[in-house]
Amino acid sequence: MRRWNGWGDETFNLAMPEQGHDFLASKIGTGRPLTNATLESVCATVPETRLTPGPELDALIDTSPEARVRHARGQSLADWLAMRSGDYGVFPDAVAYPSSNQDVRKLLAWAAEQKINLIPYGGGTSVAGHINPVDNGTPVLTVDLGKMNRLMDLDTDSQIATFGAGTPGPLVESQLRAHGFTLGHFPQSFELSTIGGWVASRSSGQQSLRYGRIEQLFAGGRIETLQGTLTLPTFPASSAGPDIREMVLGSEGRIGLITEVKVRITRLPEHESFHVVFFPDWETARTASRKLVQNRTQLSMLRLSNAMETETQLALAGHPRLIGMLERYLSLRGAGTGKCMMTFGVTGSHRQCRNALLEARSICKAHKGVYTGTRLGDKWAAKRFSMPYLREALWQMGYAVDTLETATDWDNVDNLSGLIETSLREGLKDKQENTHVFTHLSHFYSQGCSIYTTYVFRVGDSYDETLARWQRLKTSTSELIVNNRGTISHQHGVGKDHAPYLPVEKGELGMLAIRSLCNTFDPDAILNPKTLVE
Amino acid sequence: MRRWNGWGDETFNLAMPEQGHDFLASKIGTGRPLTNATLESVCATVPETRLTPGPELDALIDTSPEARVRHARGQSLADWLAMRSGDYGVFPDAVAYPSSNQDVRKLLAWAAEQKINLIPYGGGTSVAGHINPVDNGTPVLTVDLGKMNRLMDLDTDSQIATFGAGTPGPLVESQLRAHGFTLGHFPQSFELSTIGGWVASRSSGQQSLRYGRIEQLFAGGRIETLQGTLTLPTFPASSAGPDIREMVLGSEGRIGLITEVKVRITRLPEHESFHVVFFPDWETARTASRKLVQNRTQLSMLRLSNAMETETQLALAGHPRLIGMLERYLSLRGAGTGKCMMTFGVTGSHRQCRNALLEARSICKAHKGVYTGTRLGDKWAAKRFSMPYLREALWQMGYAVDTLETATDWDNVDNLSGLIETSLREGLKDKQENTHVFTHLSHFYSQGCSIYTTYVFRVGDSYDETLARWQRLKTSTSELIVNNRGTISHQHGVGKDHAPYLPVEKGELGMLAIRSLCNTFDPDAILNPKTLVE
């Protein structure tokens, strides 16, 4: 069953190898775990619901404390601390489980009539507070779209598939694979996040280099709004005015509930493999990455770890003897201390993969890259969705872990990633606490790339102190990002946590346009308040 | 000098080979040309201007009849007939030539104060009535951005170039080529159309398969609006809410005047070549095209002519002896009557081109394609921007020519292109007139493609009769397109001519969103009235 207070399936635990433990202790000291609240104790704190659905809606709606607890929070570190402490603050008044567009329309009508805030809920994997109810005096109904999870239509000629918006990653892929297709959208949250959530929050997957971001995959669909049904027909491309799809993408529940998503799919590839190259230093590694993408080499994924992430990953990999041999070999070939690990994937026809691999190896070699084959790449592929489980293992050891991500143009990548790392590394210094910080670049464009920084710090003596540590790091670094040409999010959306920083990025007139869009569809501000726009 | 009443440079004329003449006469009869108005006679019909700029604006503004004539119309067939008959109907009251953002802001302030309609003017190449003034009782100022035509900034690391919005295609490319870069945006209007116009109307170029549509190339920029300056910062990608860039793309002058455009550029390729393959019939040719694009073969352009376009192109090519030899060869190889011509381009590194060519030839061969090398491809490349000049040659012979274009999903391509061709071919039957109709597919996506249909008919005994013939064909076929899953435009925008059909495509709520966007930036409806939204 799904873990009620953390990530993923509760029967699955990722073990932390002993060297990992030692490594972290050497960096930031030994952690002292805090005590976790129990589901029962949290359920006991859930207040009486303010909603009485009445006979027509009763079958759709669950007002039980457990359902309300399970839909109150996402996966941000603040959410995690709330779930672990039991100090939730606000719960939705009820959870609805619609099975059809008609059900959703009924819920919208009820919300409009009774002035109820509606929060659309896909996989509940937001790390930016998208699905958290706010305490504004209005009753809250969370709408879980999990029952709308079917492949509804498949056009194999046009390669378009229609899904219920609540379909999670594994069900998207398994239903497509049965017909020989893939969507190719693999965010780290793949196991739980849904196709509707991807659209609502402008998600990007690990293989976006081949398949594109959700913006490129989203072909059309259906959105139930308070003004009626918004239908987005599919066209391969159009110059007929502003693109309504692009107003739905990233709308985060503010203009309506996405119920059906049409996506562009691809035949399953003949071949796919993942390869690892080590570079002697950051400069050569970053330059090689930029050259690879600006050269339009047909890669399907690319990830570049900085020296500290490379060191951390090798330390946490287990198999110290094998890793030791690898490091001695790399050192002989020029990639010693300060080395950076690049992982890249090739996907497609045999010919395409063969040539992409040759081209990639040749560019890497020109920048002193040492190619090590597919062994570490296979490991990356095997563990690509399991990283969120690591949070649980670290938590048990008394460590809190979170990530910050942005994207910026190439000329600013070093500057911005340096600022972010320093801000996080120094952020708790006056508390005599160290933060362990490392970064990778993971989504590449000719213009620039995403910067994904992980930071680990010891939990405080109390939940309040731990939350204060996180807030300080998150706030100062988020400000720094938007003030230094970074987007407040490359792949996680705005939610409530990033909303304060959005105006710097969009500007006064950009915010005017977004507010006007929300207001057009939802003049009474019923849908997902405080999300996207404060 | 630029032709005042047609396309391009007035010293350049495309000769129609004799066989072309005979071919058309056999299809639709011999034409009887109409008499053209002179520039002098048209200037004499221009009414007194309703605008008095005053000393501060005087230097920016030209109220001369000739300037007003030269900015009154675009390049639609209706525009063409107006220019040839001299029956313009409406002229702008003046033409402004700003050199800076500050100039543009002054013009906006004046327009707001005096309630003057502003029309942004790039290259004046619209084929959908974007820049035509309307007769609504309000004075009209056309703002020609032609002086803002410089490369303002070049970031070679991030591969982003900043241009003044009025920079035309050749000046975009020449300024970039001097630094070893290309934008790669080559619409047929390349010679005259501008980078700001491409953004405003969501243009697509002939090599969009490699470089993307203008949506993918447009990285940010500056738009002067009545509410202030809208600055779009550059990010490689972002999930931070709805994308304001996508509201500017296709805004057609309704939310402001685009003054600076930042675009994603590419290093000049090592190699580029264009190749031609003939297929025995439409079915094999269309299937091969779909396979090529769904296979992600790295082509830079792809164009597929149907049997009638293939026949017409070969007839109009001149060199009847060479063409005869080619046709006999093709016939022996199985591509006789009904054959369809595919042109494709490969662009990039030598390795990429070699492999793309191998892959393309292999897919074509599997669908009975007969590869003929680069000779006809070179011809296509040499003439790629000269086709609009053909209109002049045909006009002199008494023929009117126009095109209609759309895009639709693969499962609907044959249905919709058949409907369009029949509608045009039969449209003047009750007048005992034939229309010569042929089609190519020219922009390819995994999901579908564009359909580009050319139609030629004899001019009537009068301009009024000729306009009536065109209106009948345009209206009935446009209705048919939007009612049969086609977009009203894949690459030419909405303007005034397509505005009546937009609501079918966008739906009631889509139109609500677009209207609300226009209204947010321009509550008094001062900018480019009747364009995009009626």
Automatic annotation (TrEMBL), chains A, B:
Domain of life: Bacteria
InterPro entries noted in UniProt: Alkyl-DHAP_Synthase, FAD-bd_oxidored_4_C, FAD-bd_PCMH, FAD-bd_PCMH-like_sf, FAD-bd_PCMH_sub1, FAD-bd_PCMH_sub2, FAD-linked_Oxase-like_C, Oxid_FAD_bind_N
Site positions per UniProt: Important for enzyme activity: 303
An annotated GO BP: lipid biosynthetic process
Residue ranges of every copy of the FAD-binding PCMH-type domain listed in the record: 88-268
Binding-site list for FAD: 120-126, 252-258
Tagged with keyword Flavoprotein: yes
Annotated residues for binding of substrate: 391
Protein name as catalogued: FAD-binding oxidoreductase
